[in-house]
Write a structure and sequence with these properties.
The complex is a heterodimer of chains A (410) and B (216).
Chain A: H1 2-35, H2 53-56, H3 60-68, H4 70-76, H5 81-89, H6 102-113, H7 117-120, H8 138-171, H9 181-191, H10 193-216, H11 234-240, H12 245-248, H13 263-270, H14 282-291, E1 293-294, E2 299-300, H15 323-329, H16 334-338, H17 356-365, H18 374-386, H19 405-408
Antiparallel strand pairs in A: 1-2
Helix pairs in contact in A: 1-6, 3-4, 13-14
Chain B: H1 2-31, H2 43-46, E1 56-59, E2 62-65, H3 90-99, H4 108-121, H5 123-126, H6 135-140, H7 157-166, H8 180-194, H9 201-215
Antiparallel strand pairs in B: 1-2
Helix pairs in contact in B: 3-7, 4-8, 7-8
Chain lengths: 410, 216
C-alpha cells in the first residue's frame, strides 16, 4: 500500500514538474510569437518594457482582460485611469487582441517574471569581438630581412677590407686604390659580358610584363573595396536574411541609378533591430545617429546627419548606363554584373571590370528574348529578313544596335 | 650622321621604356591598397565637376548633398503622389480603414504585378504565405509580424494602405519605395493571402466584373 502511494505521488510530482517546465517554455514561445514584435523585457519598444508588469497592475484580472483585448477593456472601464493614460502615452497604438487562454497568459506572465538568465541580462559581455587586424605583414618582414642582410654584407666587406690592409702592411705591399662601387660594377660588367646581358634581359622582361599589367589596369576599378563609414554586410542582409536587392536598391527598376538607400529604408527594419550578431550595437547606432533616432525614447529627434558612403561603381561621364533598361527590359539579374553580392561580407567590392570591352562582350553574347514582346514584333521580322543569308535566328543585343557608339556615348 | 640619329632614338626609346616599366612597378604597388581605386587615366572624367546624383556639392557657398528633398507642397509631374488626407494617428488609421477604397481595377495584371512587388518588398518579413514566416524572423530570430490569414484576416484595405504609407508598430513607412499605385497592387496580392483556402475579396470582385461584362 505504502509503495503504491509513493509511486502515485512521485508520478504526480513528476508530471507536475514536467508540466511546469513545459509551461515556462510555452511562455517563452508564446511571448516570442505574440508579444515580441512590440514589447521587450527591459526596454521600451512600441509598447512599454514588460518587466514588473504584474506589480504595475493592482488587479490581476484586469491585467488578463487587458492583455486579451485592450480595446474592449478600455471601452468597458473608462474609469481605469492607468489603462487610459497608458493608451494615450503610447500614441494610441492599439495592442492587437490576443486569442489566448488564461493559462497561456499566465505562462507568458511567468516568463516575464522569471526569464531564463541569459535572456534577462542583455548580452553586455559579448560585445563586438576584437578581431586581429587582417593586414598582411609579410612584406614588412621581407623588407626588414633585406635591410639586416645588407648590414651584414657591409660589415663583412668592411672586415675583409681591414684584414686585407693588415695583410698588405705585414707584407709591405702597396694596395691598389679602392674603386668606387659604380666603377667596380662597370669593371665587373666588362669582365662578364654574357652574364650582364642575361641579367639585363631578365630584368627588362620582368619589368615590361609588370608594366603591361599596370597599364592594363589603368581606370579599371575591379576589386576596389574601400572601407565604409558603416560596416554594412551584404552577406547578412541579402544572404542570411534573403532580402531582395530591390528592397533597398529599388530605383534600379525605375531609373538610371540603382540608388544608395536613404536612411529611412534602413530604419524600416532597424527601428526594431538595434543589435546585430557580428558588431553588436556599435554599427546600428551609427544608423540611429544618421536618422536622428532616439532608441531610449523610441522617437525621432529631427537632428539628421547624412552617411558619407564611399562610391565604388563609377563610370566615367562619357559613358551612359541605365539600370532600368538592363533590369526591367533586359531582365538581367543583379548578379550578372555585380557578382554573388549575397556572399560578400564587409566591405563591398567591385566584381566586374566595367570597361567598354566587358560591356561589348556581354552585348555580343546576350540573346534578346523577343517572344511575347509587342515592341519587338516588327523589328524581329525585319531582322529575320536582313540576316536571312547568314541564317541567324536568335538575335543578340548586337543585332538591335547594342554596339553602336551613340547608344552609350553622346 | 643618320647612324648617330638612329643611336639617339634607340637610346631614348630604351630610356622611356625603362622609366615606364619602373614607374609601372611603383604604381602597381599602389593598387594593392583596397581603399584606392587604382590609377585613373583622366580623373576629370571619373570625378566630374558636374553634380553627381549622390555627393556633397558646394551650392551658394554651402556644402550640401546634391540629393534634395522635393520642395514642400509640390507634386512631381505625372506622379500619383497626391496629398494623403489621413494623419499618422490612431484616428487617422481608423478613418482610413473606414473610408479608403482601392481605386484600381481588380485584374489579373494588377494582381501579378502585386505579387512581384510583394516578393520584393514584403516577403522577407511576412513570408511567402503571409503568415509571418519570412526569412528575417526565421533565419535571424527576430519577432515575426502577425499572420494575414489569422490575426489580420479582417484587416480592411484602407488600413493596409495607411500602414504601408505611414508604417505601423515595427514596420516602417514604405512610401519612399512604393508609389501609391504600387501600394494598391501589393494590397490586391495581400488580400489573396488573407483567404488562402477560399475565395479572396479580389477574386470575388473579379468574378463580379466578369459577370457584369458577360451580361453586357
Amino acid at each position: 500500500m505504502f509503495r503504491v502511494v509513493t509511486y502515485s505521488l512521485s508520478v504526480v510530482l513528476f508530471t507536475f514538474l514536467l508540466s511546469n517546465s513545459a509551461l515556462a517554455q510555452d511562455g517563452e514561445k508564446l511571448f516570442k510569437a505574440n508579444c515580441a514584435s512590440c514589447h521587450k523585457l527591459n526596454k521600451k519598444l512600441i509598447g512599454p518594457a514588460l518587466t514588473g508588469v504584474q506589480d504595475r497592475w493592482e488587479d490581476q484580472e484586469a491585467l488578463y482582460a487587458w492583455i486579451k483585448n485592450s480595446q474592449d477593456y478600455l471601452k468597458k472601464n473608462p474609469d481605469d485611469s492607468y489603462a487610459q493614460e497608458l493608451f494615450v502615452e503610447y500614441n494610441k497604438s492599439v495592442m492587437t487582441a490576443q486569442a489566448l487562454s488564461d493559462a497561456e497568459v499566465g505562462a507568458i506572465l511567468d516568463y516575464i517574471a522569471n526569464p531564463p538568465e541569459d535572456k534577462a541580462a542583455p548580452a553586455v559581455a559579448e560585445g563586438p569581438v576584437a578581431r586581429a587586424p587582417a593586414e598582411n605583414y609579410s612584406t614588412y618582414w621581407m623588407l626588414g630581412l633585406v635591410v639586416v642582410l645588407l648590414i651584414v654584407v657591409k660589415v663583412l666587406s668592411g672586415v675583409k677590407g681591414s684584414l686585407q690592409s693588415v695583410k698588405a702592411k705585414l707584407n709591405d705591399e702597396v694596395l691598389p686604390e679602392p674603386k668606387g662601387p659604380i666603377e667596380g660594377l662597370f669593371e665587373w660588367m666588362a669582365n662578364n659580358k654574357r652574364l650582364t646581358v642575361a641579367i639585363v634581359l631578365v630584368v627588362l622582361a620582368t619589368l615590361s610584363v609588370q608594366g603591361w599589367f599596370v597599364v592594363k589596369s589603368i581606370g579599371v576599378y575591379k576589386g576596389y573595396a574601400p572601407e565604409q563609414p558603416i560596416k554594412f554586410s551584404h552577406k547578412i542582409h541579402a544572404g542570411t536574411n534573403s532580402i531582395e536587392c530591390g528592397y533597398c536598391h529599388h530605383s534600379a527598376y525605375k531609373g538610371k541609378n540603382a540608388g544608395i538607400p536613404s536612411v529611412n529604408v534602413c530604419m524600416n527594419c532597424h527601428k526594431g533591430i538595434s543589435e546585430g550578431k557580428v558588431d553588436g550595437t556599435t554599427e546600428i547606432a551609427k544608423i540611429y545617429e544618421a536618422a536622428g533616432w532616439d532608441a531610449e525614447q523610441q522617437a525621432y529627434t529631427g537632428v539628421e546627419k547624412p552617411i558619407k558612403w564611399i562610391r565604388i561603381h563609377n563610370l566615367p561621364d562619357f559613358a551612359y548606363f541605365n539600370h532600368s533598361q538592363h533590369v526591367v527590359v533586359g531582365k538581367q539579374k543583379c548578379q550578372t554584373c555585380h557578382g554573388e553580392v549575397e556572399e560578400f561580407g564587409y566591405p563591398m567590392k567591385q566584381h566586374s571590370d566595367l570597361t567598354m570591352g566587358w560591356c561589348i562582350d556581354c552585348h555580343r553574347e546576350t540573346k534578346v528574348s523577343m517572344e511575347g514582346n509587342e515592341y519587338y514584333t516588327k523589328i524581329h521580322k525585319e531582322l529575320l529578313e536582313r540576316y536571312k543569308d547568314e541564317k541567324i535566328e536568335a538575335f543578340t543585343v548586337e543585332h538591335i544596335g547594342g554596339l553602336e557608339c551613340a547608344k552609350c556615348h553622346y | 650622321m643618320t647612324r648617330i640619329k638612329h643611336m639617339l632614338s634607340a637610346k631614348n626609346a630604351f630610356r622611356a621604356f625603362m622609366v615606364m616599366a619602373v614607374s609601372g612597378m611603383l604604381f602597381g604597388a599602389c593598387k594593392s591598397d583596397p581603399n584606392s581605386p587604382g590609377i585613373e587615366y583622366m580623373p576629370d572624367m571619373y570625378r566630374s565637376p558636374s553634380f553627381e546624383t549622390y555627393g556633397e556639392n558646394e551650392v551658394y557657398g554651402q556644402k550640401i548633398m546634391s540629393a534634395r528633398v522635393p520642395a514642400s507642397n509640390t507634386i512631381p509631374r505625372g506622379s500619383d503622389n497626391l496629398p494623403y488626407p489621413y494623419p499618422n494617428t490612431f484616428e487617422g488609421y481608423e478613418a482610413a480603414g473606414a473610408n479608403l477604397k482601392n481605386p484600381l481595377k481588380a485584374s489579373e495584371e494588377n494582381l501579378a504585378e502585386g505579387k512581384v512587388l510583394y516578393t520584393r518588398f514584403c516577403v522577407h518579413c511576412h513570408g511567402k504565405k503571409g503568415m509571418g514566416e519570412g526569412t528575417v524572423p526565421t533565419n535571424s530570430e527576430y519577432p515575426p509580424p502577425p499572420s494575414y490569414s489569422k490575426g489580420l484576416k479582417d484587416l480592411p484595405e484602407g488600413k493596409m494602405f495607411h500602414t504601408l504609407t505611414h508604417g505601423k508598430n515595427l514596420m516602417g513607412s514604405h512610401a519612399s519605395q512604393l508609389t501609391k499605385t504600387e501600394r494598391w497592387k501589393v494590397i490586391f496580392y495581400v488580400q489573396t493571402l488573407q483567404y488562402p483556402e477560399g475565395k479572396s475579396k479580389t477574386e470575388e470582385v473579379k468574378e463580379d466584373t466578369k459577370e457584369q461584362e458577360e451580361s453586357k
